[in-house]
Amino acid sequence: MTQHSPGALVEVRVLEGPNLYFPRAAVKLTLDITGLAAAETEGVARLARRIGLASARPGDPETGFRQRFAARAVARLVRAVAAESGTTRLAVRVRPTVDPHRLVVAYPWRHRTRAEVLARSVAEVLDALPASDVEAAVGRAAAAVAAAEAGPAPQTLTPRVPVVAVTGTNGKTTTSRMIAHIGRTHGLGVGWSSTDGIYVNGELVEAGDYSGPSGAGRVLAHEAVELAVTETARGGILLKGIGLTRNDVSVVTNVSADHLGLHGIDTVDQLAEVKSVVAQITRKDGWSVLNADDPRVLAMRHVVKARPWVFSRDPDSPAIRETLTGGGRATSVIDGQVAVFVPGADPDPLVALVDVPMTLAGLSRFNVENTLAAASAALALGIPREVVVEGLRTFLPDSEHNPGRMNLFSLGEVSVVVDLAHNEAGLEALLEVASGVRRPGARLLLALGVVGDRQDDLIEKLAEIGARDSDLMVIAHKAHYLRGRSVEELDELLRTGAERVGVSGVTSYPTEVAGLAALVERAQPGDVVALMCHAERAAVYDWIAAHGGTPDGPETLRDKVRAAAGVS
């Protein structure tokens, strides 16, 4: 990625694999079109004629007509410079941004150096406006591209083993961990790339955030890997592209508001389009596992080539009927059993939800969905039914199998729930589980913290939800994830959100451990302490263990759920 000084060229980003714009390596060029938007019509008309838009109507400066002309003209300019330098039939896509003076332009590349020169040369033509020699600037740009060295080719990998790619706003880590566990249960050598690092056969081999293209490559580089499971995040797709040419099975868990306002993604619909890239590169003879309860995810079946396999908590969902009619498959819940649907046959009951520890005795709606997604993906890979069932039964919601995701502990008669819960949907899921293990008359105490790169309204909304649905809320900051904000700024936003639901005087603590300790000290027997944990997961586990806490096993959890429901 290259940033530039003021001028038409804002950024050049080279995407090494499938991306939001193309199913192969592409250059993403961000342009400031202020000069084109403000130039007198005569100069713009000269440019239009030079690039083959002789009959164009550019509109007056700084009008909506000029803005739309600019998008058309920039696409034609890229093609004209490429054609005159010897590259014909170049695909170009142009997208507007929230800034009317900025456009994103993308085109595929086969030779990196020449593709980057094309990007800079196009920007130089725009910089020539409104000079009278803008026509000559196009010729100079083409000459510069023709004279440039070709440069290296894309490094996109073609997998040598089956690949399951998992994406979504919530649940992708848990789902990918479950799939990897089922693969290992089948005796396969499994490599898993994620936000936590690279794991091979359950062992961490490289720590760090590997949810981007480098993660997939590092997993496939290990000779012991017979099945690759890749957690694919929004950032990696946008900033680098996907590192693989294809996958065999894709999973899209859901799409909700998260990381909006970053990298040109400002709406949930745009975010869904980014996530759909993972499904779009699934092999035609593979399976795309889609959440039928999320309309944006379900809509992806119209843009994928792979066969659809939907999952839904509702066995009577119209999406299931439609998918089966089209020859696809589905997974749902019937009479408390995970069941698989295939066309022309009765549903096949796999396993009872209460026997799947990750569902927290059926309490966690999100983990029920993750279970349905993981079972679908594993079966789509061809893993035998009985192995899938065994994998679901033996994957536990603890710090060993699923660290940082709905981990439950007992501290005497106080329950502690630890979860990432980094957005609205995640927080609501955490509160749902915490409420589900709270005895009648007991309280729910919440330690809430946020990552600094969220939008102001989202930060306030998280505090509003937390204050509304808990009996006591404190702020527990994530010092490593302030991302340009101050603690004081975050305190103000969070307290503003809490005050909307009548909660004032919210106490703030500098760390997650400090927030947890404060709430445990104030908890009474039967109370539940919920912690949004991101930055200090290991330290939180150590603190709980040092104070006599123990992880809840499936039996303990079932007992808590029954007690919370008033069932003896």
Automatic annotation (TrEMBL):
Start and end residues of each Mur ligase C-terminal domain: 404-532
Transmembrane segments: none
An MF annotation (GO) of this entry: cyanophycin synthetase activity (L-aspartate-adding)
InterPro entries: Mur-like_cat_sf, Mur_ligase_C, Mur_ligase_C_dom_sf, Mur_ligase_cen
Source domain of life: Bacteria
Enzyme Commission (EC) number: 6.3.2.29, 6.3.2.30
Name of the protein in question: Cyanophycin synthetase
